[in-house]
């Protein structure tokens, strides 16, 4: 579907090309992705409504009713399935391969991400071993300094981890858009991504700014709705009658569904296309570099 994917581009040009593709093919994108978008949005709406309903006015930690827990579990499963479906269908629009194939590869990448998290957890938890464990240590003034030092160390480690994961954009796209085996995609993709770390970082930074601004704008109705319910719960905790209408649960679902559908259709899909164009630019530049090296005269 994308004919000019493999072309040398700057970070800004990758975002511009993805935006132009998204706007010019929006009807086709909407026709192919409406089902997974609505499925995922419905799961999000159900999960948010159930989560809000499970909060008691006294804000205690009592276990919600089993029926509510079952609804939340079903919504979680539907949400995960919808996300896989959406990402696989989006990939199909780029590589023209079966959605099932793309979903399987998406699941493989999820397992890889879980493995990275499992490996990283001990490194983040290790500094706790050096903190005081006795009551005297916890009450001591030095405990505050230890906690602040631990938080600073975790923040630095998190930043370094995110910087190390930036080249994984190329790994992910190489594995999703081509028939490259996982091991080869990790090895060659990470190396290529590392060579173009600056471009990838700039793309991620611009995407973060744009996504944050757009998400905050479209999430305002949901934020207002949540704030109103929190204030109502606080009033109920002091014995005041609730001022919420009886159809609040329905409103929760509809607002969350609408916000999620808009963000998934526009923001999530557009971000995937930006990543695809960025991968195409990196691959093209790597191929040009290899061609130049092969044509270099021997001395």
Helix and strand composition category: mainly alpha
- Our Rg estimate from Cα atoms comes to 24 Å
Overall geometry comes to globular
Task: Give me the number of helical elements.
Answer: 11
SSE succession: HHHHHHHHHHH
Question: pLDDT average, as an integer?
Answer: 83
Helix content: over 70%
Portion in strands: under 5%
Number of strands: 0
End-to-end separation: 44 Å
Low-confidence spans: pLDDT under 50, at least 5 residues? none
- Can you summarize the main beta sheet? none
Description:
By secondary structure, the protein is mostly helical. The chain is globular and about 85 Å long. The protein has eleven helices and no strands. The chain starts with 10 loop residues before the first helix and ends in a 5-residue tail after the last helix. Helix 7 packs across helix 8.
Give the secondary structure arrangement, pairings included.
Elements: H1 11-24, H2 26-53, H3 66-95, H4 99-125, H5 135-139, H6 141-165, H7 168-177, H8 182-195, H9 197-218, H10 220-237, H11 248-294
Helix pairs in contact: 1-9, 1-11, 2-3, 2-11, 3-4, 3-11, 4-7, 7-8, 7-11, 9-11
Labels describing this entry:
80% helix; 0% strand; 11 helices; globular; mainly alpha; 299 residues
In short:
This protein is mostly helical and 299 residues long. It contains eleven helices and no strands. The protein is globular, with a radius of gyration of 24 Å.
């Amino acid at each position: 579907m994308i004919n000019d994917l493999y072309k040398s581009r700057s970070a800004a040009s990758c975002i511009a090309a993805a935006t132009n593709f998204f706007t010019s093919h929006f009807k086709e994108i909407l026709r192919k992705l409406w089902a997974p978008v609505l499925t995922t949005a419905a799961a999000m709406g159900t999960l948010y409504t159930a989560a809000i309903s499970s909060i008691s006015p006294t804000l205690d930690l009592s276990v919600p009713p089993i029926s509510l827990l079952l609804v939340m579990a079903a919504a979680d499963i539907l949400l995960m399935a919808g996300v896989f479906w959406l990402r696989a269908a989006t990939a199909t629009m780029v590589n023209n391969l079966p959605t099932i194939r793309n979903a399987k590869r998406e699941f493989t990448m999820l397992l890889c991400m879980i493995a990275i998290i499992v490996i990283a957890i001990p490194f983040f938890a290790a500094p706790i071993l050096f903190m005081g464990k006795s009551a005297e240590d916890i009450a001591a003034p030095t405990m505050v300094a230890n906690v602040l030092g631990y938080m600073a160390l975790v923040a630095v480690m998190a930043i370094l981890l995110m910087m190390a994961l930036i080249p994984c954009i190329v790994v992910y796209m190489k594995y999703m858009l081509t028939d490259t085996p996982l091991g080869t995609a990790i090895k060659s993709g990470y190396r290529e991504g590392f060579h173009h770390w600056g471009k990838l970082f700039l793309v991620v930074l611009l995407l973060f700014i744009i996504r944050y601004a757009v998400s905050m704008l479209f999430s305002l109705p949901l934020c207002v709705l949540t704030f109103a319910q929190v204030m109502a719960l606080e009033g109920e905790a002091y014995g005041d009658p609730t001022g919420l209408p009886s159809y609040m649960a329905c409103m929760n679902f509809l607002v969350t569904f609408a916000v999620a559908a808009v963000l998934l259709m526009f923001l999530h899909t557009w971000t995937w296309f930006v990543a695809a164009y960025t991968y195409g630019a990196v691959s093209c530049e790597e191929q040009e570099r290899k061609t130049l090296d092969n044509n270099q005269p021997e001395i």
